[in-house]
């Protein structure tokens, strides 16, 4: 049996996936920080606001207004969110070994 979704149905499925997406915490931290940074134009404000809200919901810590950090692997999840909101040209993800506020962040995340 094959199920073909129309555009509206596909949007609902993606919306459901967005609402239920989560980032798993590993048993042992790998020592790397994931930083998501963005510079999204005003005409994409709705997507920018949705991205920031979703990052906070997923447990990211705001480093600055448009930069968030998390100590867990999350590339696939971030790629999905960025593609869903059509923000690929405006979003960058870094994997960082050291950060000047590392001690504070380790305490914040319990790693």
Number of helices: 4
Number of domains: 1
Question: How much β-strand is present in the residues?
Answer: 15-25%
User: How would you classify the quaternary structure?
Assistant: single chain
Description:
Strands 2-3-1-4 form a four-stranded antiparallel beta sheet, with helices on one face. The chain is an alpha+beta fold. The mean pLDDT is 89. It has one domain: Alpha-Beta Plaits. Helix content is 41%, strand content 18%.
List keywords for this structure.
4-stranded antiparallel sheet; alpha+beta; 111 residues; Alpha-Beta Plaits; 4 strands
In short:
The protein is of the alpha+beta class and 111 residues long. It has one domain: 2-Layer Sandwich (Alpha-Beta Plaits), CATH 3.30.70.240. The chain is built from four helices and four strands, in the order αβαββαβα.
């Amino acid at each position: 049996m094959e199920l073909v979704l129309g555009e509206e149905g596909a949007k609902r499925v993606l919306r459901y996936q967005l609402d239920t997406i989560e980032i798993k915490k590993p048993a042992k931290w790998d020592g790397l920080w994931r930083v998501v940074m963005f510079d999204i134009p005003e005409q994409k404000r709705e997507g920018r606001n949705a991205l920031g809200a979703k990052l906070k919901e997923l447990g990211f810590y705001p480093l600055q207004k448009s930069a968030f950090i998390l100590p867990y692997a999350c590339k696939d999840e971030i790629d999905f969110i960025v593609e869903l909101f059509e923000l690929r040209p405006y979003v960058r993800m870094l994997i960082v070994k050291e950060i000047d506020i590392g001690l504070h962040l380790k305490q914040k995340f319990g790693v």
